[in-house]
Amino acid sequence: MRTIYIALLLIAFSANSFAQDNTLKQEITKLSKAKWEWMADKDVDKLSTLFHDKSRFVHMSGSWKKDRELEIIKSGSIWYKKADVHDVVVEVIADDTVLLWNRITLTAHVRGNDVANEFTVTEFYHKEGEDWKLLDLTFSKVRDTHEIAH
């Protein structure tokens, strides 16, 4: 009888953990989608709240911190016009740490021209209090046939 009771507790715990992971995955996926919209809208106020003060951004042309990324977005020197998200994979590391990978086609206005590039974008989120903070956003140029393994 004791073995059955322990097995039922383990099943209940696993089901709760699975449901919690799915909730976190949905929350981060929604936040990532909103981030792409804020970037397209050049909404540096919302992005400033989302980006951790020690966040890093890795692009094809370089790597920099939060203040430079916000300046680039605000000035329009890179205007993230539209991110067509083709695939999303989310990995919950802990209740306060989540990694997300987007496979996107990014249309951006750079140096006077509209350009479209295929990327896998890695996003690293950490929860501080009640708020999720983006710690890292890294663009990796890929072919349009690239797939993210689930």
From TrEMBL:
<keyword id="KW-0732">Signal</keyword>
<dbReference type="InterPro" id="IPR032710">
    <property type="entry name" value="NTF2-like_dom_sf"/>
</dbReference>
<feature type="domain" description="DUF4440">
    <location>
        <begin position="28"/>
        <end position="134"/>
    </location>
</feature>
<dbReference type="InterPro" id="IPR027843">
    <property type="entry name" value="DUF4440"/>
</dbReference>
<dbReference type="Pfam" id="PF14534">
    <property type="entry name" value="DUF4440"/>
</dbReference>
<protein>
    <submittedName>
        <fullName>Nuclear transport factor 2 family protein</fullName>
    </submittedName>
</protein>
<feature type="signal peptide">
    <location>
        <begin position="1"/>
        <end position="19"/>
    </location>
</feature>
